[in-house]
Amino acid sequence: MDGAAIERVRVLAAASGPVLAIDGRSGAGKSTLAAALRAPVVSLEDLYGGWDGLRPGIDRLVREVLEPLQAGRTALVPRYDWHAERWAEPWPLEPAPLLVVEGVGAGALAAAPYVSALVWIEVEESERRRRTIGRDGRIYDDEHWAQWALQEDEYVASDRPQERADLRLP
After folding, report:
1. DSSP class of residue 52?
2. Rounded-to-integer distance, Cα 47 and Cα 70, Å
3. Exposed e or buried b for every residue in 106-125, given b needs 16+ CB within 10 A?
4. Which conformational region is residue 88 in: left (phi greater than 0), alpha (psi within -120 to 50 degrees), or beta?
5. pLDDT digit string (tens) for 5-54?
6. 137-163, pLDDT tens digit by residue?
7. DSSP 170
């Protein structure tokens, strides 16, 4: 992610409000962008609960994170341990001036009432695949890639986050 793109996202976040969602398919660069913004980050990867968990992760985001924060309460953010394949202790998140939510599903229709601005990152599949192998190794094998891609396809087709994005990045 280049500096100009990061600056465009910073300007959008400053102008929009307390919750910035960064969405895109697996390996698009969402986590990298979120880390560059220097704000508290909730990663949907912690909320999925396994390889079939895209929709349940979105539900957890809304119920366990966005609803409590909007009410001014501390959120107890769920944390799935992918290596142990079980839930770990949740972590407390206080309301903050800016929260970045990143991951596939951050721009879901169910989350939209809580999101101030939505960024969609679009990257070619071959590049995304190369990145995920570099990041996760072979734990994200071909079977898991296909399993996850089907959920992404369904999500993108039904919720159309790329069309509702305030900012689209290549």
Report:
1. T
2. 18
3. bbbeebeebbbbbbbbebee
4. beta
5. 999 999 999 999 899 999 999 888 999 999 999 899 999 999 999 999 99
6. 666 677 887 899 999 999 999 999 999
7. -
3-state secondary structure 23-76: EECCCCCHHHHHHHCCCCEEEHHHCCCCCCCHHHHHHHHHHHHHHHHHCCCCEE
Report which of 99, 24, 39 is spatially closest to residue 67, judged by C-alpha positions. Answer: 99
* Contact assessment for residue 48 and residue 140, using Cβ atoms and an 8 Å cutoff: no
At 109, which CATH number? 3.40.50.300
The range of the structural domain enclosing residue 70 comes to: 3-169
Could you give the CA distance from residue 165 to residue 93 in angstroms, rounded to a whole number?
A: 25
C-alpha atoms less than 13 angstroms from C-alpha of 56 in its C-beta half-sphere = 10
Residue 78 gets the label, from left (phi > 0), alpha (psi -120 to 50) or beta, of beta
131 neighbors 83 (Cβ within 8 angstroms): no
Contacts of 90 (CB under 8 A, 6+ apart): 64, 76, 77, 78, 79
CA atoms within 13 A on the CB side of 66: 27
End-to-end CA distance of the chain: give it in Å, rounded: 9
SS3 of residue 155 by DSSP: helix
d(CA 133, CA 142): 10
Domain count, the chain: 1
